[in-house]
Fold this protein.
Amino acid sequence: MLIKYKWIMLLLMTMIAFAAVSLLQGAGRSAGRADLSDPFLDPYALSLAHRHAGHGMESASEKAVQLQIEWTGGPPQAGVHSDLSLTITNGQGELLKDFVITNEKLMHLIVVSEDLQYFQHIHPEYTGQGHFKVNVSFPTGGTYKLYADFLPTGMNELTRSVSVQVQGKLNQPVPLEESDSLTAHVHGMKVQLEFADKPAPGSATSMTYTFTDGKTGEPVEDLELYLGAVGHVVAIDEALQQFIHVHPLNWASSGPQAVFGVSFPVSGTYKLWGQFRRGGVDMIIPFIVTV
């Protein structure tokens, strides 16, 4: 009886996976030739397994993990390269020493200015015994927020953030306003972002970036892997409280589409940075959306 039950459950899970793939094949298509029957399509990503769970869904041991930073050469200054040390500890203040590589790196560090006009994605070097180091440069003075993504062995992927004050001349903050169009022209390409459903708080949907030649309109099919995938998307809300980092469902695709499963936790205005690579050139494509 137990064996029969296991086979029934396996059959149901397989049917759900195929249903997810079928749903995605009809979602988020644009004028560009879309082919989501990619053999590398990851239907499990639609359940947001590739989105960090958030502090509220972490286990007690995960919640206890802390990030500590130190500017080893003194407080950071605008226009000057500053040495940053990052240390990961557990609830007992002990160093966490073992980490798992995610998307080719042990740690991903996202640096944004308070008004979200500045964005940087860098990768601290692990020096052992729970310590990372990296060189950071800030364009202007003011408040910045750092988000560190890492995966301690035996845990889920975690995000920890910290605000820093940078000395130097301040820029006038730029208000965050929704993009008039979700179309960009980058490196000779036309890039369109489409959502399968209108973004709503707590509702899972898919978003699709479609790449076509800016002159001919032909599909772009020579995108290169960036950090082990066709692309990555980071989204941060205007209050700098919500951080989302999602990976593509069709991770090994070379275009013309990159498809992501996403859920915005609360309403508000979010800035999205899509990161892609073509011809050895890394591209950052920003859009601002209202949820």
